Here is the input.
Amino acid sequence: MRQAHEKIRSATRQVAKTQKNYFDAHVRSCTFTTGQLVWLFRPRPLLRQRYRKLTYHWEGHYRITKFRSDVVVDIQHVKTGRK
Here is the structure.
């Protein structure tokens, strides 16, 4: 029983490595710069739109103003100036 379990674990590890290699081969990295225009994703709709089926979750245009880290970015709306 233990030998069968060990064979399955090693086969699973090997398949996981293969899948990771396939995934990594097709991944493209995104690089953003200060001043670039981006869209903001808001997964929860506004209160008045909560029960609408076809709610658009993307807002734009926002401009990148500052990078606080590799992940955290300050953005500002182009027309309203809202941060």
